Amino acid sequence: MSEWPLTESFPSSSGTVRWNRLGPADGRPLVLLHGTPFSSYVWRAVARSLARDHRVFVWDMPGYGRSEKYAGQDVSLAAQGRVFHELLGHWGLAEPLVVAHDFGGAVALRAHLLHGAGYRALALVDPVALAPWGSPFFRLVRDHAEVFEKLPPALHRALVGEYIASTGGPGLRPTVVDRLVEPWLGESGQPAFYRQIAQADQRYTDEIQDRYSGISVPTLICWGEDDAWIPVAKGRELAGLVPGARWEPIAHAGHLVQEDAPAELTAALLDFLGRVS
């Protein structure tokens, strides 16, 4: 995708990570984390806006987007949390601003709570954080991944496209769906899609859920009010568990708030980040 280049690479413990940096070299460092089954592509509009005043780091997690995919790869939440901690060290970032969506929210939380990653502030956008999680479709595929992996390519493409399009909200255009489906196609992409679902396990959030009350960094929790994957009630519940968390529901947005309401999300992030000295 030439319109969203990831020109740098990092040899992480779970495979080569593709990443890029936007914005002024002297800007406050800010890292964006994507969710599943997405890639950093979903952050493109928000990242470019934030990069006016911040040094923005974007990356595709191992097994996702343009990062490395291979048989037997560990792409679990546990692995991704370790990789994010490794990346912060590689980038030399001691206390960046962190903005994380969906599965990326759990990755950021695990890196902070289990691996000691320091953040100046944390913004979570419709994160996977509280049990129970996983839609009926997600659970069905997880329990029968070896069967779904054998689907003919055309049926696989249609399934992934329909799944991504089910996030709720008005902003997910067909061309964007195509961009998000593309990394999951072909000899490496198709098995990688089912691999990451097969390795999704609620125990990785269960391990940290009782630690949310110990989060002391400034925290913002944004949520698309029309999220069809994780109900907005989960966001309110999470906001009540994190001391001092700021709650920001976003109207007319589904799970992919970045696509449904990029201006509103960017405004909420800039307001929050502007209050963090």
UniProtKB/TrEMBL annotation:
Pfam families for this protein: Abhydrolase_1
Domain of life: Bacteria
Keywords recorded for this protein, A-Z: Hydrolase
GO molecular-function term, one example from the UniProt record: hydrolase activity
Protein name per its UniProtKB record: Alpha/beta fold hydrolase
Gene3D superfamilies for the chain: alpha/beta hydrolase
The AB hydrolase-1 domain, residue ranges: 29-262
InterPro entries listed in its UniProt record: AB_hydrolase_1, AB_hydrolase_fold, Carboxylesterase_BioH, Epox_hydrolase-like
Organism in which the protein naturally occurs: Streptomyces lienomycini
Lineage: Bacteria, Bacillati, Actinomycetota, Actinomycetes, Kitasatosporales
